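Sat 14:20. Reprocessing the chain from the morning session after the first attempt stalled halfway. Input below, unchanged.
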Amino acid sequence: MDVLKRVPIKEQEPKVRAANFEEVCLGYSKEEAMEEASRCLNCKNAQCVKGCPVGIDIPAFINEIKEGNFEKSYQAISESSALPAVCGRVCPQESQCEGKCIRGIKGEPVSIGKLERFSADWAMQNEVKPHPAAEKNGRKVAVIGSGPAGLTCAGDLARLGYDVTIFEALHEAGGVLVYGIPEFRLPKERVVAKEVENVKSLGVKIETNVVIGKAVTIDDLMEKEGFEAVFIGSGAGLPKFMGIPGEQANGVFSANEFLTRNNLMKAFKDYDTPISKGSKVVVVGGGNVAMDAARTALRLGAEVHIVYRRSEAELPARVEEVHHAKEEGIIFDLLQNPTEILVDENGWVKGIRIIKMELGEPDESGRRRPVEIPGSEYEIECDTVIMSLGTSPNPLISSTTNGLDVNRWQCIVAQEENGQTSKPGVFAGGDAVTGAATVILAMGAGKAAAKGIHEYLSAK
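Finished this time. Tokens:
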């Protein structure tokens, strides 16, 4: 065994997986997981833990895998994380825990994410549940949104004995885990639903089809329903567009809408779903959501182009997602930017006009600013355009809550260390505060808010 190199992990072949919605990565076997776990140096001052937004005791859970104690490994993770099977699949480990792994200095870092996935999957297959919650203390807390921030906050509070109810606007719990991430990256029934059930096993109640701000307000929850504190983890589901001509045409989607229709309406199972499959699709953007939308459209039978205004080095998507997209046949049109969506006489997309770009001086983000090349415009024929330009929070909750401050992007203003907002007893975290970010950062915010709520209520 070469300790400097990871144990390889099996994946579906690109040509095969490009035509199905089955999970790309097939995971480690017991023997492979134990071999990979043996590469861990079990550092006393573990830098990997410092890189984990939810503070998992990484050396401890990996050591248990090495020893073959898979149940103990899962329990070690679940002390800190409510969603280990999710995080093992979608976290950007390369820039967090694995990015700080000492093994990575002279070789390849330990596959922390794949080992977390193995541990969580083993627990689900063997019906192992997290340790039970503390006895209920009779104090009620409301959580708005059943995405990663809400589930984490609810799970942590339930463990402390609080009577927690999650209010979810859609008909299925899970938030972005259900409607935003494709089946081939995150299986819904096999993984997400079981993680949600684990949170419910702690005593958390989930009420679906409740739109906070319309069905009931936060003020109502606190003044009429007896909730002593509220956590807002409603995410950032309001899509952004470019404002170019033709964006109102039929066949133009936000990535949010496209992925939501595909996931919640189960287009990936060949249901009779009102989703425009398209024969030639252009996805505008370069983040993880753009990769998800492009790879979904490909699996629905389209030729797919990703148009991004910077170079490959500036792509914000995970390297693994870009690599998988290329393997599957996605075409990358880099250093190019749309200027107009072309529309036929019936109001449908017939193409997109593009201008070529070059990189100029760095902007305020530190990345080199893309600059148009005059006279370089050309057209791509297509019948569907998917805009993946980021999202912002829906202002419905903030606009119906007295005393809740927001910033100019409609993000709720909250303290980073504990999630406290300007309204006493109301806490917030995740994308509703930061704008669109990662699952694990939202979980970290939910964990911090749970601690803040516990301290707040303990002082009352």
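The first strand starts at residue 140 and ends at 144.
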